[in-house]
Amino acid sequence: MTDLKNSEKPFGPIEKDDWTIYVDKDKCIGAGVCTAIASKSFELDNEGKALILKGVDQENKEALLDSAKACPVAAIIIKNKNGSSVYPE
């Protein structure tokens, strides 16, 4: 595992364009699907919880949404600039 996480807010919220993204650490079970889909944005920490990486700025929004949708426990939360839920709906 690398030390690329955003040390100030490793679980978010992180701003990406007009979205706010965060990981619900309590829900995360470490399935790792997010790391496979959006490897610039997510990594598992030593406890097996998904962290948001600084590379989230380089990830496209489609990959971020796909990673949220693929999470088996909906631990990745995406909201729009108005605070409305993008995913989960």
Notes on the protein architecture:
- The chain has about 90 residues and is of the alpha+beta class.
- The protein has a single domain (about 15-80), classed as Alpha-Beta Plaits, CATH 3.30.70.20.
- Helices cover about 15% and strands about 25% of the residues.
- The chain has two helices and six strands.
- The chain has a four-stranded antiparallel β-sheet with strand order 1-2-5-6, with helices on one face. It has a two-stranded antiparallel ribbon with strand order 3-4.
- The longest helix has 10 residues, at about 60-70.
- The mean pLDDT is about 90.
- The number of helical elements comes to 2
What is the quaternary state of this protein?
Answer: single chain
Most strands sheet = 4 strands, antiparallel
Quote the distance from N terminus to C terminus: 32 Å
Structural class: alpha+beta
User: What is the level 1 CATH name?
Assistant: Alpha Beta
Proportion of residues in helical segments? 10-25%
Model regions low in confidence, pLDDT < 50 over at least 5 residues:
none
Spatially, the strands of the biggest sheet line up as 1-2-5-6
Order of helices and strands: EEHEEHEE
- Characterize the overall form: globular
Task: Write down the Rg.
Answer: 11 Å
Write down how many β-strands occur, each being a DSSP E stretch of 2 or more residues: 6
Question: What's the mean pLDDT score?
Answer: 90
> What CATH architecture would you give?
2-Layer Sandwich
Beta-strand fraction estimate: 15-25%
- CATH fold descriptor: Alpha-Beta Plaits
**Number of individual domains:** 1
